[in-house]
Design brief:
The chain is mainly β and 200 residues long. It has 2 domains: 7-54, no CATH class; 61-164, Immunoglobulins (Immunoglobulin-like, Sandwich), CATH 2.60.40.10. The chain contains no helices and 15 strands. A hairpin with a 2-residue loop joins strand 3 (34-42) and strand 4. It is rod-shaped, with a radius of gyration of 30 Å. The N and C termini lie far apart (89 Å).
Length: 200
Amino acid sequence: MAKASWVKVSPASGSGNVNVNVSSNTEHTGRVARTTILTWKAANVADVQRTVNQAGKPEYVDIADAASADKAGKVVTISGVSNSKRLTFSLGTGELTITLPTTYTANSITTNNGANINGDPGAASEYPFSITINVPANTSTSSKSRQIVVTDDGGNQDVCVLTSAAGDAYISVQMGDIELDYKGTAVTIAVESNTTWTIE
């Protein structure tokens, strides 16, 4: 049985007394340790085998630090990587009114928020994930933001701040010419605006 491609031995051959260094070509991003067998072979000698175990990476989750939507609103996809068997998304602090979807994508698999990921891809290596959020139009003249919090099965958290750009200021007066009677009786005029205004 050949050794796994992730293990590196140097030198891979020799004669007489030689120190052999055993290492890994790559960081192991899965949670679960991986194993391979090294086999020393020589003519007229029984094979000598040694097991090599590479520890798994501690459970973690990493999401984009920030995401944004323009004032008209849009669908925003926020991505990250993890090796957890389960991710849970929640809303943190902020004034942006959004609703989290009930599902997200983990390793190209549609997964329910907070449920175990089918096949547990994080056991063997890190996997990509993404969540798609519908951000409504911002009619306020101030930008609004909201924290998107993702928590892995071990309780580790990472936060993405989703910001909606400020909307355009507007003022709308619902009446054309204002006609007062000879007594000067008050006429009510509907004004709609998202900013401060004065009449001069």
